[in-house]
Write a structure and sequence with these properties.
This protein has a single domain, classed as Alpha-Beta Plaits. 43% of the residues lie in helices and 26% in strands. The protein has three helices and five strands, in the order αβαββαββ. Strand 2 and strand 3 form a beta hairpin.
């Protein structure tokens, strides 16, 4: 009889551990995998919103991560698009056709993070 109780207790512990692990929401990495720094004017806000939708859709379709927040400075000067995912190179491959085709981001600066290392370049 004690062996059955021990087995049941072990099974209950496994079930509880699996249930609590499944209940935790997926967490974003501690920082973005990729950032795009672009210049804009206040009149460009509708185009920024359309760009966000195109990028979010492409990233989701490719299952490459997600588009995070967009930071737009109030003075109508600097904007930043943040993207999250496990592979910054894949994020760039998925998003670069869209970034290159947009007047807002065609010559923007991109930063990709690989853990503590980063790579920054201008879209050409």
């Amino acid at each position: 009889m004690p062996k059955i109780r021990k087995t049941l207790a072990t099974l209950q512990g496994i079930a509880l551990a699996a249930g609590s692990a499944a209940a935790q929401p997926a967490q974003k990495p501690p920082g973005p995998a990729m950032m795009v720094h672009f210049d804009y004017y206040p009149k460009d806000r509708p185009q920024i919103h359309a760009l966000e939708q195109r990028l979010a859709s492409a990233i989701k379709r490719a299952d490459a991560g997600e588009l995070g927040e967009t930071e737009i400075h109030i003075d109508g000067n600097d904007g930043y698009l943040y993207m999250y995912g496990p592979d910054p190179d894949r994020l760039y491959r998925v998003t670069s056709p869209i970034l290159k085709s947009s007047r807002l981001t065609a010559h923007s600066e991109v930063t990709k993070w690989y853990g503590p290392r980063r790579e920054t370049f201008v879209i050409r």
